[in-house]
Amino acid sequence: MSKPKPVLEINNATLAYGSTKLWENLNLVVEPHEFIAVIGANGSGKTSLLKAILGQEKLTSGSIRINGAPVKGGRSDVGYIPQHRGTDASTPMRARDLLRLGFDGHRWGIPLPTRAMRARVDHVLDCIDGRALADEPVGSLSGGQLQRFRVGQAVIGNPNLILADEPLSALDLNQQQAVANLIDQERREHESAVLFVTHDVNPILGMVDRVLYLANGQFRIGTPDEVLRSEVLSELYGTPVDVLRNQGRIVVVGTQDHHHHPDEEWV
Amino acid sequence: MIFNFADYGQLLPLITNSLIAGAVLAVVGGLIGVFVNTRDMSFAVHGISELSFAGASVALLIGIDVVVGSILGSLIAAAIIGVMGAKARERNSVVAVLMPAGLGAGILALSMYHGVASNKFGLLTGQIVSVDNPQLYWLVGIGGLILATLALIWRPLAFASLDPEVATARGVPTRTLSVVFMLLLGLAVAASVQVVGALLVLSLLVTPAASAMRITRNPAMVALLSVLFALLAVIGGILLAVGAGLPISPYVTTISFVIYLVARLVERRAR
């Protein structure tokens, strides 16, 4: 049996602004339907990594390939879920239009309705339990509702790589779980790999195959059990760090940064 | 006497050109206006129209075609705003700086001009009643070019306007589209200045789409209603103006404004 072709290959990638290195010699090969969490403090270069993969940030050195091809700019075989951001109430776009933009918004011409498009939109509406909201203006959706449609928009074109940039921020805990489950379910059904940037690993802990932990210009890659340990993170941060586990949740204590959810400040 | 429709039947053949020109501009304005509103560019439209006026005035002074002058002024303004004001906030200040400069230059050129005076006022407030054949060919040509380009880029332009972050990630050339749209907008403004005048261009390029967006959030319906409202304002305005023997722009702007008020009422009712 030959190994499946990697969806994403990051080779010896370094990103530096002047003398500040965000990360150096980063190597990561992502196989189809792997779920990878990218965690780290603010300013550790999580979002920059995503931007580099999207072709919006130029690497200082190294290379990134998606489906075997070097990254040049945005591409239609990648699904992208942005952070939750409210939309102006007067924006002329219904929830179903948001899905449709993900399906064929990148193509030229006038968006005439086609049977294939309608069928696809209806299918995704069922997957994200969005039928009842389909004709609502996007500006009137709640945070959790909008992010459900964002997941639908990202998967509607059957991408084999989904990039998610803090998709759970600004959601309450129930909504976080619902949206995270939806991403997990979609990647299982469509065999797409997921790169999930987050400051809090807990909502996705049960789904994550590997963790990429960025801190101090360095990184660690491995399963959550390999990386999210006191001795590993202490070495990474260069100061004593405690990783606490409580009722299936993980809290990292002792770092200067807030990469855990405000709800967990009780620790 | 504001209305006199006694000789209306005889007048109609004389205004065929105006009606065709008006209809073309209404379709163009209604469709461009959808993107002007979603891209938050109403103020830029105003700025471009002042420079279009300056271009037309200078053209009048140095004796070249007024339409050519107004197109040049428009395109230069659109290019400057497009290059210097990518973000909405920067754009507003660039427009606010350009606008009085353009208006001033236009007034200077007009005051130095000693030809037929009736054309002067027309550039600011509209002059559609006498559209001659060459003018009509210009307008239809520009209108056709704008509509053809819009048809080609409609889908990615809508993506880039409504959901720019995801559009960029999905490979939509948002920057190129933004420049192309500015040029289309420049052309549309230059064409509209010929009809409603520089000061009233907003009533054609902003108000119809803004009214449509009050009534529906369905993007296809917004485009359709916007064109319908623009047609109603322009054709209705021309027909009323001819009967009254007054400039058409007050009629166009008033109808456009009333449609907007009704749209807001409809929106309130629907809630």
Major beta-sheet overview of chain A? 6 strands, mixed
Weakly predicted, low-confidence segments of chain A: 259-267
Total number of strands of chain B: 0
Q: Indicate the overall shape of chain B.
A: globular
Strand order of the largest sheet of chain A: 6-7-8-3-9-10
Oligomeric state of the chains present here: heterodimer
Count of strand segments of chain A: 12
Largest interface: A-B, 32 and 29 residues
- The computed structural class of chain A is alpha/beta
Question: How many helices of chain A in DSSP terms?
Answer: 7
Number of contiguous helices of chain B: 13
Brief sketch in words of this structure:
Chain A is α/β, with parallel strands linked by helices and 267 residues long. Chain A is 28% helix and 26% strand. Chain A has 7 helices and 12 strands.
Structure description:
The complex is a heterodimer of chains A (267) and B (271). Chain A is an alpha/beta fold and 267 residues long. Helices cover 28% and strands 26% of the residues of chain A. Chain A has one domain (8-266): P-loop containing nucleotide triphosphate hydrolases (Rossmann fold, 3-Layer(aba) Sandwich). Chain A has a six-stranded mixed sheet, sandwiched between helices. In chain A, a hairpin with a 2-residue loop joins strand 4 (61-66) and strand 5. The longest helix of chain A has 18 residues, at 173-190. The model of chain B has no long low-confidence stretch (mean pLDDT 88). With 271 residues, chain B is an all-alpha fold. Chain B contains 13 helices and no strands. At the A-B interface, helix 2 of A face helix 7, helix 8, helix 11 and helix 12 of B.
